[in-house]
Amino acid sequence: MPNFRILRSGGAFLLVLGTLLPSAVVAQQHDQHADHDMHMGHDMDHETELEGGWLMPPMDPNMPMMPGLEGAVPPVSAWLPHFDLDPEDFPRAEPSRAVRLADGDTLDLLVSPVRRTILGQEYLMYGYNNQYPGPFIQAERGSTVMVRVRNEIRFPTTVHWHGIRLDYRFDGVPGLTQPPIEPGEVFTYEVKVPDAGMFWYHPHVREDIQQDLGLYGNLVVLPEEPADGAPYHREELLALDDLLMTEGGQLIPYGLESPVNALMGRYGTVMLVNGVADHELDVQRGEVVRFHLTNVANARPFNVRFGEMDVKLVGSDIGPFERESWVGSVPISPAERYAVDVQFPEAGRVAITNTIQAVDHFRGVFYPHVDTLAIVNVRAEGVEPDLSELHSTLHVNEHVVQEIDPFREHFDREPDHEITTMVRVRDLPQAIVLSMEADTFYVPPVEWNDAMPMMNWLSSGNQVTWILEDEATGGRNEEIHWTFQQGDVVKIRVFNQPQDFHPMQHPIHIHGQRFLVVSRDGVPQENLAWKDTALLPVGSTMDLLVEMSNPGEWMIHCHIAEHLSAGMHFHFTVEPAAAEADTP
Question: For the whole model, what pTM was predicted?
């Protein structure tokens, strides 16, 4: 996707976040980096600053340092937000607040630096309206709300309204649907919301930095009538995230000219829920809570458990499943959303965890790993009314079944388009290349953890190209352009090539439309929900049935932020239906 260009520091000048600065000034700012960290309360004695201001990410003690990589740093400039300014000059961020918008209402949304406290330490990060996450926007289905965005960070930015079938001119893709919002500029989005569901918003310029530093928020579209299924007592939002820090609590810098961690994406070392590392909530004994999960991380998939309980899976990206079901955990990839109903029958503490089988690439073994994401404090006081019987029943969402019925005739036909994912690398350190070519690494279908943090960190978007290839034409990434007519039902088959330098799972996101995942590896999917993002494991194939209902120019891309910046995207056109096209 288009990004602003930044000249390397070997020249006379650098274009730094929209400001032309002499390279000597940039060098001076990097020299100030250590002083800034001391001001932020970090203990530099426990960390080693490498060449150019880089800090090495934490390594698993079981993983030896690869020969030839001692002291190596990524081939781009290290960058942290506003490291040349005093953090006391910025406001302290506040927790997200709900804002209810009626049809035609306008919300002012400020994009600016904020001070955040995480595990007792202060950081300069970004926020929408000085909140973390951004404001929780509520709108009614069928309404149009206006969001006036003012950019006061040093990056150009946009806002992408993820999963919403809105007018493409307000989809937030720079160079395709709008020019980027430059520092100091304002852009007004008209957000029409035709579907009920839980959506979210985030930047579409250098997501690897802007989103990771806190620019994300949820938008719920309320249905006109109550949905099918069992009732619940209340709803809770859980935005799942992670941050990459040293053991001493310093943020690992980002790549300035292009992202680092381009092989696997930026897996964090500190888990966050709703922007904090120690999220807790209180419930009453017997209470049924509907949790809306959104994965806002750059790259990490989560496998969410609620203690040892089975929970009721009720919905995904754009509304309910055809049928409710009991699940032991909820796997969720970047940009996906899931809704689950959880009842807490006994007083005490329940941990919400990320429970995974991690992999050690060097030894080729799996090992269990658990991160606590949040704590639920269940009070002894019982809740009224008692919903236990209704909660224990699995319901069929007849309106979803009926809405999907007209599309079933397309489930078994041959695909209209086939895409293969792959990766190409160049100019990586020889030690990394030799290690990969020696087949010393086991690659699982889903990388739940970063099992090669040093090699991942050393790979930049200048060295790694992630690819979507059109099987019919051989076109790759931006060489691909498809054209459809409004009303077309298109079947797209996506295959994740396992025989590659380092294959990865990919959360595939389609802008502006909705789709059904009708089969995986040739096996029909029996319980469907409308989606906008779906995870494709390594070696797997999935068939997406896309309803091309929304005219305009749209993107398809991997939602691992570093893969997107490393080229893994293309766009397609949906032409208006004839009657609409003839309307003056």
Answer: 0.90
